[in-house]
Amino acid sequence: MLAETVCSAASAAGLGIAAVTAYRKRFLSATRIAAYALVPVALVMTGVVGWVSGIVFKPTVWAGFGLLGIAWMLFSVTRFAERRSEGGTRKERRAAAAAQGEAVAPGASAPSLGAGRGSAPRPAAKAKGTSGGEDFSDIEAILKKHGI
Predict the structure, then answer these.
(1) Which 8-state DSSP code applies to residue 32?
(2) pLDDT digits (tens, 9 = 90+) for 79-95
(3) How far is the C-alpha of 18 from the C-alpha of 34, rounded, in Å?
(4) What is the pTM of this model?
(5) Which of 45, 51, 89, 98 falls between 20 and 30 A from 80, CA-CA?
(6) d(CA 99, CA 137)
């Protein structure tokens, strides 16, 4: 009963402030203040205030919140312990993550999704003054590397 009275008084005060603001020709601000002022009465009428006040004053509800806190703490502790047991130091975990990321060769091309224009890689533009033999030397080195 007290919560409903307080909410009604807060709404009445807010609507009074909105009226003064509208009198000063600040209609946009007055409308916004009126909207905020109507929220407490709306919460009382929907029953939210009664529900919240019922929750706040019950010891079993606080015990439930305490159990939720303990559960959250246990999850956090197990996650921390799991991270500590997986990889030792932070540098070792980063090195392991980098090794997993390099499973594909750095120069590998992306798989094609179908035959279409632009699916084949385009050769790099030749610089002026270079001969074709230099380009083939790169290809020969790659072939020799693969044993072909």
Answers:
(1) H
(2) 888 877 765 677 777 77
(3) 5
(4) 0.43
(5) 98
(6) 31
Angle at alpha carbon of residue 76, lines to 72 and 80, rounded to 5°:
175
The predicted-structure confidence for 36-69, as pLDDT tens digits, reads as follows 999 999 999 999 888 888 888 888 888 988 999 9
- 8-state DSSP, 80: H
Of 42, 37, 55, the residue nearest 4 (C-alpha):
42
Q: Which residue has the tokens 């807060």?
A: 10
Q: Is there a contact between 51 and 80 (Cβ–Cβ < 8 Å)?
A: no
| Other Cβ atoms within 10 Å of 7 Cβ, number | 18
Q: Letter for the amino acid at 12?
A: A
* Distance between CA atoms of residues 75 and 81, nearest Å: 10
44, 61, 148 from 16: Cα distances, Å: 19, 37, 89
Nearest to 37 by CA among 11, 16, 17, 4: 11
